[in-house]
């Protein structure tokens, strides 16, 4: 049980703003430059000093982990949006497109992510379980509506779409075409 003496203090508002700006800037730099993104450029883009960056993220890998975790949170939040759509198949399609974009963007950070997962094996498992639960949820709704095959699991979808998007040679257009093939194959 956490006691008041050991409970982490919430961030001050200005510290939280800096943290959020650093994560957003890192996401943009990593998307543009992948592993060539410089810490100094991330701090500059966030409008803070390098010291502020290092106070929040002592190592580069800490920043990579924060960006990755935020992207997982955002992706999982799209399940709620997909479930609000009246057409369960359209919701599944929307979520799979969001997942495909997410997976394609991770292609440039594989080395850093592998380092993060080696450092904290539980991180990979935790995030993978969250993704699996999200995929199962949105797929299950489409299956219950009779819109897609019942013999496909959420993990099947993650592996299939992730594999398409992580291909080093696949272009965005090829990925989109293959995703449409997957979606057509899911229909009942």
TrEMBL record:
InterPro entries: Homeodomain-like_sf, HTH-type_TetR-like_transc_reg, HTH_TetR, Tet_transcr_reg_TetR-rel_C_sf, TetR_SbtR-like_C
SUPFAM superfamilies recorded: Homeodomain-like, Tetracyclin repressor-like, C-terminal domain
Domain of life: Bacteria
Molecular function in Gene Ontology: DNA-binding transcription factor activity; transcription cis-regulatory region binding
PROSITE patterns reported in the protein's UniProt record: HTH_TETR_2
PANTHER family hit by this protein: HTH-TYPE TRANSCRIPTIONAL REGULATOR BETI (PTHR30055:SF234), HTH-TYPE TRANSCRIPTIONAL REGULATOR RUTR (PTHR30055)
Protein name: AcrR family transcriptional regulator
Organismal lineage: Bacteria, Bacillati, Actinomycetota, Actinomycetes, Motilibacterales
